[in-house]
Amino acid sequence: MAEMTMIQAITDALRTELKNDDNVLVFGEDVGQNGGVFRATEGLQDEFGEERVFDTPLAESGIIGMAVGLSTQDYRPVPEIQFFGFVFEAMDAVVGQAARMRYRSGGRWHAPITIRSPFGGGVHTPELHADSLEGFMTQAPGLRVVIPSGPYDAKGLLISSIRNNDPVIFLEHMKLYRSFREEVPEEEYTIDLDKANIVKEGTDMTLVAYGAMVHASLKAAEELEEEGISCEVIDLRTVSPIDIDTILESVKKTNRAIVVQEAQRQAGVAAGIVAEIQERAILHLESPVFRVTAPDTVYPFSQAEEVWLPNHQDIKEKVKESMNF
Amino acid sequence: MVFKSPVEGIEEKFEMIQILNEDGKIVNEDAMPDLSDDDLVELMRRMVYTRVLDQRSIALNRQGRLGFYAPTAGQEASQLGSQFALEQDDFILPGYRDVPQLIWQGLPLYQAFLFSRGHYHGNQMPEDVQALSPQIIIGAQITQAAGVALGMKNRGKKNVAITYTGDGGASQGDFYEGVNFAGAYQAPAIFIVQNNRFAISVPVEKQSAAKTIAQKSVAMGIPGFLVDGMDVLAVYKVVQEARERAVNGDGPTLIETLTYRYGPHTMAGDDPTRYRTEDMDSEWEKKDPIVRFRKFLEEKGLWSEEKENEVMETAKEEIKAAIKKADKQEKQSVTELISIMHEELPANLKEQMEEFKEKESK
To answer: Where are the transmembrane segments (chain A) (predicted)?
Structure first.
C-alpha cells in the first residue's frame, strides 16, 4: 500500500477508471497537457491520449452540456468544473438538464456523468472559488452529491461515482488535497454511495459532518475526550441523499446531535438533517439538535476567512452547550 | 477614424439563398437538389399533413384536450426540409416547436400528443429514433448537440447531430458556447436557427446589432448560411450540404432560415396582435411554403387538388386515431415518476415511494 495525498488518490481513481472502461472521458479547462490546476489529471493525457483526456474551451455551461450530449453516445463523461464557484455558469446544464435526463426521456437516455470540482475554504483563494455550494445541488432531484474527507475515501468514492449510471457531483475540498497522506491501496476498490461512515465511535454526542469539517469534528472530539465527553463522529460521505439511518442509530445511542457544515446556516444540508432527526427521533433527544455553520453572508475574501469558517473550538463550545442543556 | 472594422458590411455577404420563389418558379437551377419526383411529392405530403396536424392540434387545445402546444404553421419548410435531409441514425435535438421533425423521424403521433399532455411516454423516443425530447430551456440543447456530435465523431459514425432554436435562442450564452465547442472540435453538428422574427413578442431587430444570425458563424470560424426558410428546396439543399461536410470531417454549419409563425407563440394565452400587424402577417402569408411548392409541383404535373384532399383526409383520420390511442394511455402516476428518477432508488425516494403507493391506492 502506498501513502497518498487526496489529490494523488483522485488521480489514481481517474486512471483506474480510464483503464477499466474505454467509455470514460475526462475533460475540462486545463485538464489536458497542464494536468489540471491542482494536478488532479497529471499525466493522464499522455497515458490515455487526447481523445480520452482533453481540454475544453473556457465555458462551464458548454462543458456540462457537452457531457450530456456525450452520454447519448454511450460515453461516461467525467468533466471538471475548475472551481465549484463557477458552477453557477452551468446551473441549467447540471440541474435543468443532466439531473433530468433519465426521467425526461422515460429511461431512453441517462446521464452517467461525474462532475468533479474543488471547493472549500481556508486556502486564500479569490472570490467564488471556496464557496460551499452543495446545498444548491442537494435540492436538485436526480443528482447525487458526494464529498470525500480524505485520500482513502476519495479513491473509493470517485470510482463508485464514475461507475454510477446517474449524475454525481463529486466535490473535493481544496484544503484536504495535500494537507495529509493516508494509506491507499494501489488496487481498485469501491465505497458505497449513499452510505455514511462512522469515523469515531462515542457514547455522549453525535457529531455529523462532511468534507473538511470531519477533521474539525475529530479534533474537537479528541479534546473533549480528555474532558470526559465521548463523541461519535459521522462522516456523511454522500450529502445527497443523506444516510439518515446511520445518523438515527447513533442519535438513539447518544441522545444528542450536532450537525457541522462549512456552508452558511440557512437551508442547506445541516438544516435538512436537523429536520429529519427531530421528525424521527424526538423522544430520544436530551437537547435540541444544534448546528455549527458559517454565517449567512457570502464567502469572504480571504482576509476574514479564518474567523468566518467554523472550527473545532466552535464545535467544542456547541457540544458543551448541548451537554449542559 | 484611422481604423475601419475589417468586417464592416459583413452581413451583405450573407445573401438569402433561394431556389423556389414565391411564385413557385425555380430561380436557382444550379442549386436544385437531387430529389426524385417521389421525394418531391413526399415533401409536399409531409408539409400538408403537418399543416393539418397544426390546425387539429390548435382545435384540440381549445377544447382542452391537448395541453402545451406551440403552433408550427408557416415553419413547415424550415422544419421538414431540414429533417428530410437527415438519415435515420442522425440525432435530433429539437426545441419545443420542433415536434414535426420528430414525428417524421419516427415518433408516433400519439406520443407527440402525450408530450403535449405532459406524459413522460411522449418523451420516450422509439429505439430507432435518435433524438432528445423537445427542449424547454431556450438554447440548452445547443451545447448538448456539440456533445452528441463530438461523441459521433469519436465513435467513427457517419452521422450528424442537428439542433434547432429560434432567433431569440441565438441570444443565449449556450448558443455561442455550443456552436463554438462544435467548431473547436470540428464535430459533425448542424445548428438551425429558425428566425421567425419574434421571440414571443420581442422582434429580432432587438436581439442583436448583427443584421443576420448567420453571420455569427464568422466569429465561430465555421460556415454559415442565410436561407429562405419558406422555400423547402433551399432549406433541404443547404442542410444536405451541411450534412455532407459534417460526415466528411469538415465540421459544423450554422444555418439561419428566414421564416414566420402564423400562430401565437404557444396556445397558453399569447396574443400576436399585441406585437404584429395584419400587414406583416399577410406579407408573410404570401411567402407560404406550401402555396409556392404546390404551384411548382402542379406545374410539373406531380400534384393536384384531389391528391391534396386525399392527404388531408388521411391526416385527419390518423390524427383522430392517434388521439384515441393517447386517450387510452393510463395517466402517469407519481410512483412511476419516482421509479424513473434514478437507476438505483436512494433511500429517501424508496420511503416516498411507499407513501405515494398508499396515496395513489386511495
So the answer is: none
Domain residue extents for chain A: 2-184, 197-324
Q: Which of A51, A66, A194 sits opposite B143 (nearest CB)?
A: A66
Q: Are B251 and B187 in contact (CB under 8 A)?
A: yes
A321 close to A304: Cβ distance less than 8 angstroms: no
Question: Which residue type sits at A163?
Answer: R
Beta-strand relationship, A231-235 and A257-264: unpaired
Task: Look at the domain A197-324 and name its fold.
Answer: Rossmann fold (3.40.50)
User: How close A236 comes to chain B (CA, Å)?
Assistant: 14
Grid coordinates of B44: 409536399
CB spacing of A62 vs B181 below 8 angstroms: yes
Q: Which residues contact B115 (CB under 8 A, 6 or more apart)?
A: B68, B99, B122, B123, B133, B134
> Residue B338 has what pLDDT?
96
Per-residue pLDDT of B148-200, as tens digits, reads: 999 999 999 999 999 999 999 999 999 999 999 999 999 999 999 999 999 99
B313-355 tens-digit pLDDT: 999 999 999 999 999 999 999 999 999 999 999 999 999 999 9
What's the DSSP call for residue B15? P
Instruction: Name the H helices within A164-212.
Output: none
Q: What's the pTM value of the predicted model, to 2 decimals?
A: 0.97
In the structure grid, which three cell numbers stand for residue B340, read together? 424513473
Q: What average pLDDT does the segment B255-274 reach?
A: 96
Residue contact B124–A93, C-beta within 8 A: no
Its CATH architecture, for the domain A2-184, is: 3-Layer(aba) Sandwich (3.40)
Is A106–B143 a contact, with Cβ atoms under 8 angstroms apart?
no
Contact A194 B184 (CB under 8 A): no
Catalytic site positions of B: 261, 265, 275
Q: Give B252→chain A minimum CA distance, Å.
A: 15
Half-sphere exposure of A230 (CA within 13 A, CB side): 9
First-to-final CA distance of chain A: 46
Q: How confident is the model over A212-234, as a mean pLDDT?
A: 98
Give which of A24, A68, A101, A138 to mutate to test B binding, by max B Cβ within 10 Å. Answer: A68
ipTM of the complex: 0.96
- Kindly determine whether residue A103 and residue B341, on different chains, have CB atoms separated by under 8 Å: yes
A293 interfacial to chain B (CB closer than 8 Å): no
